[in-house]
């Protein structure tokens, strides 16, 4: 009998997906050995989530004995086995349209560090595959801190009023936000690629507005940054490369290379290059971390927050920069105020054919970045770049009405 006939390619060895009665019975046996059999609230959970809707996972030792297990149960009309303990919370999530699941019966009897990583990566992949927003978990109070370091979790209930093991440990209910950006340690720990909070489609749709609108606030940034460029210049995350017009007017610049991972942005930048007749410019549809070469000057304006792995990109920029070269990084900080900026540019943009679309796109971008805490205070940004060997020449937060940090960085000669 198949207990789960779903695709197995998201479940990687040594983790297995239980699909037969024999496997389920072995998992049940491990549960019964682990949890208290003299507790009525526990005994009834030995069989929970063993139906066809659940993902019952397990791993074996070299003798084929099951040594670990976990169960992910997506929501259904039947609800969750322990739902009576947190029914108000579940009902509220359902009313908000959340797609939820419950993770439970996590038992690991060997190599806990390695297997915790493997199970959580598998659960995360299954949840993403199924479009699950929130995974509910009941855990011991003492484990909350360690989980917060690696997962985007929120404590929903401080005391479940029941204990399931010999420790009689206090249990709490937490919600793991699968769609949120997880702490960087999670991606490192599980060897998972850090996802971007923005889709390629979003940047493609934004590209005409990025090229078609230039505010006085942007003009100030482009003029200041371009005047400090010299030699071979790299624009890391160039977008539509609006700064090209300013770079072209700098007689100290030998060449300009703009790189962006959004094809739509590069298409807009290519059109602009033709209009400017800027023969010294080249445009690359590529990831910043895949760019090769050596550059005297590198700039990056309002791109940092969109990088899935900022440390990786910054480290590569460091390698691309010539000794004693200059790298100017401009990115929104925690004081970025979209409403304040809107009121300041309304007068110059009212009547512009792209006005509404431009403002809405920027609101959407800012909202995602702010909710993901990607607009860092300047001191945090300085701490990060120094850890990556950059030397800070100067810094200020005067751009974008105080809402953007500007760091002028260099590399030891």
From TrEMBL:
<protein>
    <recommendedName>
        <fullName>Methyltransferase domain-containing protein</fullName>
    </recommendedName>
</protein>
<dbReference type="Pfam" id="PF21926">
    <property type="entry name" value="FeeM"/>
</dbReference>
<dbReference type="InterPro" id="IPR029063">
    <property type="entry name" value="SAM-dependent_MTases_sf"/>
</dbReference>
<feature type="domain" description="Methyltransferase">
    <location>
        <begin position="231"/>
        <end position="335"/>
    </location>
</feature>
<dbReference type="Pfam" id="PF13847">
    <property type="entry name" value="Methyltransf_31"/>
</dbReference>
<feature type="domain" description="N-acyl amino acid synthase FeeM catalytic core">
    <location>
        <begin position="49"/>
        <end position="157"/>
    </location>
</feature>
<dbReference type="InterPro" id="IPR025714">
    <property type="entry name" value="Methyltranfer_dom"/>
</dbReference>
<dbReference type="InterPro" id="IPR054597">
    <property type="entry name" value="FeeM_cat"/>
</dbReference>
<dbReference type="InterPro" id="IPR016181">
    <property type="entry name" value="Acyl_CoA_acyltransferase"/>
</dbReference>
């Amino acid at each position: 009998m198949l207990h789960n006939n779903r695709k197995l390619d998201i479940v990687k060895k040594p983790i297995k997906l239980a699909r037969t009665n024999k496997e389920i019975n072995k998992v049940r046996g491990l549960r019964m050995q682990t949890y208290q059999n003299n507790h009525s609230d526990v005994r009834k959970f030995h069989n929970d989530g063993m139906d066809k809707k659940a993902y019952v996972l397990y791993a074996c030792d070299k003798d084929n004995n099951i040594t670990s297990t976990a169960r992910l149960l997506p929501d259904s009309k039947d609800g969750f086995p322990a739902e009576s303990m947190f029914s108000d919370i579940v009902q509220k999530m359902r009313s908000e349209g959340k797609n939820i699941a419950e993770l439970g019966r996590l038992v690991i009897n060997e190599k806990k560090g390695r297997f915790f990583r493997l199970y959580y990566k598998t659960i995360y992949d299954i949840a993403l595959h199924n479009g699950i927003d929130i995974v509910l978990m009941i855990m011991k109070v003492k484990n909350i801190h360690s989980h917060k370091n690696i997962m985007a979790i929120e404590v929903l209930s401080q005391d479940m009023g029941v204990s399931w093991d010999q420790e009689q440990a206090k249990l709490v209910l937490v919600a793991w936000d699968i769609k949120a950006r997880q702490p960087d340690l999670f991606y490192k720990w599980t060897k998972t690629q850090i996802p971007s909070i923005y889709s390629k489609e979003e940047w493609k749709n934004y590209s005409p507005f990025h090229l078609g609108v230039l505010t006085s606030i942007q003009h100030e940034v482009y003029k200041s940054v371009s005047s400090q460029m010299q030699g071979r210049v790299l624009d890391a995350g160039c977008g539509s490369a609006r700064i090209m017009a300013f770079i072209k007017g700098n007689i100290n610049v030998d060449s300009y290379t703009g790189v962006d991972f959004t094809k739509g942005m590069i298409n807009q930048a290519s059109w602009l290059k033709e209009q400017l007749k800027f023969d010294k410019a080249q445009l690359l549809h590529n990831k910043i971390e895949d760019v090769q070469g050596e550059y005297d000057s590198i700039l990056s304006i309002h791109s940092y927050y969109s990088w899935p792995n900022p440390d990786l990109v910054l480290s590569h920029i460091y390698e691309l920069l010539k000794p004693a070269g200059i790298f100017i990084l401009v990115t929104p900080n925690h004081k970025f105020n979209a409403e304040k900026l809107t009121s300041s540019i309304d007068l110059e943009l009212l009547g512009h054919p792209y006005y509404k679309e431009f403002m809405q796109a920027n609101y959407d971008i800012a909202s995602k970045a702010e909710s993901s805490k990607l607009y860092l205070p300047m001191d945090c940004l300085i701490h990060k770049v120094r850890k990556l060997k950059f030397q800070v020449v100067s810094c200020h937060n005067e751009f974008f009405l105080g809402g953007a940090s500007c760091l002028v960085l260099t590399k030891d000669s």
